[in-house]
Amino acid sequence: FDGQLFLSKMKGKSMMFVGDSLGLNQWQSLICMLYSAAPKARVQMSRRDPLSTFQFL
To answer: Trichome birefringence-like C-terminal domain spans which residues (predicted)?
Structure first.
């Protein structure tokens, strides 16, 4: 998995995970992989039930 490439291709775009705990696990795994690919990146997380957003700045 090339997290840097993924971040560059997704720049300015949004992605939504909808569903049950499986969707939550996929979302958490993606964020973990992206953060490990860019550990010095600034990130912003917002939680407002029922939505959580995570943004690489």
So the answer is: 1-56
